[in-house]
Amino acid sequence: MILYEYPFNERLRTYLRLEQLYRRLGELLARAHPIDHHFALVTIFEIADVASRADLKTDVLKDLERHKSLLDSLRGNPDISERMLDQVSRHVEQCFTQLNAQTGKAGQSLAENEWLMAVRSRIGIPGGTCSFDLPAYHAWQSQEPQLRLRDLEDWAGTLAPLCQSLQLLLKLLRETGTPQWVAAEKGLFQQAMPPGRSFQLLRLRIDPTLNLVPEISGNRLLVSVRLLRPESGSKPQPCSEDASFEVTLCS
Prior knowledge:
Elements: E1 2-7, H1 10-29, H2 34-51, H3 56-73, H4 82-101, H5 114-123, H6 135-141, H7 145-157, H8 160-174, E2 180-184, E3 188-192, E4 201-206, E5 213-218, E6 222-231, E7 234-238, E8 243-250
Antiparallel strand pairs: 1-4, 2-8, 3-6, 4-8, 5-6, 6-7
Helix pairs in contact: 1-2, 1-8, 2-7, 3-4, 3-8, 4-8
């Protein structure tokens, strides 16, 4: 099954973009080739760019505080394990404390590193990191893999509290949904949002053998999915056949 996710607000769009970048960084750090470490550094810069949004840290701290209050309100419920509740609460509190202890924006210390900023000024230019442009960067890439990895892990470590907080928030959000199978008649599915609830994320799983791509749109009142069939060398075309897939709404 192929998973697609559709966020219903801009805050969650930012969270999902950062999650994707953190996943890419993790994959690249597990490798040893200089090219992989080059793109790991590119990814660190991309994370820092997204994380530099003025209100991002505040949004994440507010979401952690909201989850802490929600978990506290569940204490004493006989249907909920107190042990699991304590475990999740401690995790939320730990993420809040570590992120709140960071001064300024996430990754701010990277901007104070003159060597990194020299690389960053050239890294977005096609071929801008050649040895004749950045000899110091070329020398760094020529070091032993473990030395480059140590530097990359140090730089990525300044972004770790934000990463851990986002991972926890998205995990808690995804666990709020209940999957259901739905049918798209002639390639179109529409569903009115249940009243009284504010949803943040739609998760859609579809069988890859159907060779269909979902085009998702939605707001607080209605969600719509139009199925498209990929065409080689041209835009995907609307599907006119019935098909089914799994949908999960998360709040």
